Amino acid sequence: MGANIALDFAGHGFTVKLADVNAAQLEIARTTIETNAQLLTQHGLLDHETSRVSDIVFTADLPQVAAGASVVIEAVSENLAIKQKVFTELDRQCPPDVILASNTSTFMPSKLSAGLTHPERLLVLHYWNPAHLVPLVEVVPHAGTLPTVVERSRILLEACQKRPVVLKQEVVGFIGNRLAFAIQREAMDLVAQGIATPEDIDTVVKTGFGRRMPVSGVFGTADLGGLDVYQAVCQSLFPNLCDQKEVPAALAERVAANQLGVKTGEGWNRYDAASADALRVAVAEELIRQAKLDQAKS
Ligand SMILES: NC(=O)c1ccc[n+]([C@@H]2O[C@H](COP(=O)([O-])OP(=O)(O)OC[C@H]3O[C@@H](n4cnc5c(N)ncnc54)[C@H](O)[C@@H]3O)[C@@H](O)[C@H]2O)c1
Q1: Do 104 and 112 meet the contact criterion of CB atoms below 8 Å apart?
Q2: Is 44 a member of any domain?
Q3: Rounded to two decimals, what is the model's pTM?
Q4: What share of the chain is helix, strand, coil (3-state, %, to 5)?
Q5: Does 172 reside within a domain?
Q6: CA of 28 to the centre of ligand 1 (A)
Q7: pLDDT of 160-180, one tens digit each?
Q8: CA-CA distances (angstroms) from residue 250 to 44, 57, 245, 254?
């Protein structure tokens, strides 16, 4: 995530320094940035006049990154203690007007900012993977985050052609993961009940309601359908939807059996090297196609 966030800023003309404690990870980040920058260039999505991608500084020295920065985005491992340690260090090193942001998927900004001398400059900027191609960034302030910090973050993201959505208050899962996992829960329940296979469910999403979602979203789709119809469906459907609180057994069993998905060759589906690659390429190509459409519209 850190590498592609760095690529996105540098690609839009910002000076970027990227820090990691692990030298091998820094090398992976360098390769990732080079490869993805080439792909963006091939598709006319990187402006070489303004790009500063080749100037990105790679370092193991966090103080070097902090020095002179106006914004620091943390994308270290999803571990609260590690993140709090990094923010304590940044809070000590960076003047109070420097924005401290976290790309965390799960931790509340109030938790990450607790104990800092200047908690008012911290917020979550939640990018989606791959960060250089997905426009959405969820902006999540805590109750004490300064409005100017939120506004400066929004302006900065828009300068990178991102689509920031500012949450009115912090909530677990932010918006995107709450919606995505509501679908995951219902889908896993339908499979557990023997009503459909994972393949059937993916077909329903890909060829059915998923087709119009990129255009009409959730509420636009309801408005097109008619709210009277939606009310009737809610009445009959909501009492029947899955509201399970625990991790579904089939998911836990797969994880215990090291069936982790593409990375181990089996998850809900089976993969060999070719089919795993084909899926990754298909997703990347679709994201690039959409990025080109966005560029053409802007
Ligand atoms: N992977 C995703 O799809 C995704 C999407 C959105 C948000 N996120 C969030 O982004 C963050 C990073 O996720 P990732 O998938 O890139 O993880 P990752 O494990 O690939 O990368 C984390 C990096 O942090 C480095 N690191 C660990 N401790 C450090 C420290 N003290 N100082 C500097 N670097 C340190 C590690 O060496 C590693 O390179 C997490 O908070 C994750 O929840 C991930």
Answers
A1: yes
A2: yes
A3: 0.96
A4: 55, 10, 35
A5: no
A6: 13
A7: 999 999 999 999 999 999 999
A8: 43, 44, 14, 6
